[in-house]
Amino acid sequence: MFNESSKIWHNGKLIPWRDASLHVTSHCIHYGSSVFEGIRSYRTPQGLGVFRLREHLQRLIESAAIYRMDSPHTVDEMRSGIFTLLQVNNDKAPYIRPVLLRGAGALGIDPRNSSIEIYILSWDWGAYLGAEALEKGVDVCVSSWRRPAPDTFPQLSKSGAHYMNSQLIKLDAVMDNYHEGIALDYQGFISEGSGENVFLVRKNVIYTPPVTASLLPGITRESVMTLAADLGYTVREELISREMLYIADEVFFTGTASEITPIRTVDRRPVASGQPGPITRRLQQEFFGILRGDLADRYHWLDYGSDLHIKSRKKQRLSAIAE
Length: 323
Fold this sequence. Notes:
It contains nine helices and 17 strands. It is of the alpha+beta class and 323 residues long.
């Protein structure tokens, strides 16, 4: 999965992959005190473009702020570090994972004496839900595990601790031979997948749950909503009951990792014909057309880092070795 010869960006410096380690007393290990992002990049005729990089990094800082963690680096500093990292690692189309965490310094629940650190790594990562998922769709179930109420965990924060709930949803799903699970919120309405937002189509109207349904407001979710509206579709954010999944014309996931993935069955019931529908296909065509450089990037989603003055790869490698 990882190329051990690659570098990792740690607190402003490149370090060898093997040196990116934490002490066992780190607060994040004991109490899950970390926030993170997942960011995709795409090879285009113009070069390697990173999808909505600033928006992801801003959300990282806001996720940390919700948990009273002050980021030691700005969006611009992390953005520059990411392009330096990508140039050194030279992956084909890297997935980028920044994680901001509380390190060693305190072993009680009070985290204030813990250090705050940032690691950023990159690696090539294919289709998240399987090689055929984007083309043929996936099989999902409605999970018995629910998303927490808004006065328990702050769902606007992309926190590592929250993903223990996601692990339960995912594990139950895959152990029952599904690709993924869909969670309901604390009121029993549709929330999201273990790591994806959910959309459904009925009578040519696109529906997705609101942020108040205990979901993370995905950056890809927002992008797809913008794209769909500009293509002339009606998009509605509203509470959606579980049974709508069984009578929908189309259902699909969105997310940085999952991109736009059709859902072909829910609880072993086919979604319409059991094949990806025309609206899902249209959105995929436009979305990937932009991100792969076949269509104009009319939303300025791709960041090529062209304004940054990054060292040549040879000089960067020598600098990394010296550090």
